[in-house]
Sequence to fold (97 residues):
Amino acid sequence: MRARSRGGVVGWGTWRFGRVLLRDGSASAPREDDLAGTNGSVVTAIPVDGYGEVLLYLAGQPVKYAAKAGVPVARGIEVWVDSVLSPTSVSVRPVER
Fold:
């Protein structure tokens, strides 16, 4: 009988802990606007008059975005996000070291 009552207590504790975690609304979901001021790398070269692709990290997850730049940027170059143009595209500039 003791094992059964311990199981009930553990089950109730797990349920209660889950409810507490679900109510925790302190952290906000990441948004695209959070990308401005971050760095990433070019995965498809960016021509001066068109779009290329960059790999950025949003909330620790890698995400590819279409990217425009004022100068041509080759594949593999590290870039800095100047602004977010749309939910799927950004404006970048090469990082100068």
In short: The CA atoms of residues 68 and 91 lie 5 Å apart.
